[in-house]
Design brief:
5-stranded antiparallel beta sheet; Immunoglobulin-like; 4-stranded antiparallel beta sheet; 199 residues
Length: 199
């Protein structure tokens, strides 16, 4: 099954990307659900559409939807979920997409259970001795640490942080902190609060 739709000058293309080691469960009922809202006024979001597909795609795929606005910046909120036998396979996250001109293409990195896509500050050159440490912990309790990783690359970047879903409380919120190891400076990191296991 392909979610690839024909590109045109009035469409927005969203490339959904999953980690290389993600494999959809075989057999059973499969479903992909994509919901998109326009949220220029957060108090009155406008439903753009909801799409359902009776399958799950691994790796990367591109989904196109109509953008019927010209000469105006539009902010969309995108929610995507993969279901196997009615059980969610992705963390519940909303993605913000700002479109000023079409055609517009953007990649959204999805986080399956056990994987959290982390983005650490704007990329910049960092010497090896200033490697970045990222910690995943209970919200508001940095001492209740679940995972700690050090990025030894010469560039602070985005990556998938793996965690054990069996150690996660359903419905509980978790957060991230990041520091550089040389000066112990706090770095910007996303996402913010996130439920790592649905209720």
């Amino acid at each position: 099954m392909s979610l690839l739709k024909n590109e045109s000058n009035t469409r927005v293309g969203l490339t959904f990307s999953l980690p290389p080691d993600f494999h959809a469960p075989v057999g059973g009922a499969q479903e992909t659900v994509i919901d998109i809202q326009m949220i220029n006024n957060p108090l009155q979001p406008i439903e753009i559409g909801s799409w359902r597909y009776a399958s799950i795609v691994e790796g990367e795929w591109t989904f196109w939807f109509a953008h019927p606005y010209a000469n105006i910046g539009i902010q969309y909120r995108v929610h995507i979920q993969l279901f196997h036998d009615n059980r969610p396979l992705l963390l519940r996250q909303h993605y913000s997409v700002i479109v000023n001109n079409t055609p517009h293409r953007e990649t959204l990195h999805l986080s399956p259970l056990g994987h959290l896509y982390v983005s650490v500050q704007q990329p910049r050159d960092i010497p090896a001795e200033e490697a970045v440490t990222v910690c995943l912990h209970e919200a508001g309790q940095p001492e209740a640490e679940l995972v700690r990783v050090t990025q030894d690359e010469h560039r602070a970047t985005s990556f998938y942080l793996k965690y054990d879903p069996d150690k996660i409380l359903p419905g509980k919120y978790y957060s991230l902190t990041s520091t550089d190891n040389k000066y112990n400076h706090t770095l910007s990191v996303s996402p913010g609060l996130v439920q790592l296991l649905p209720e």
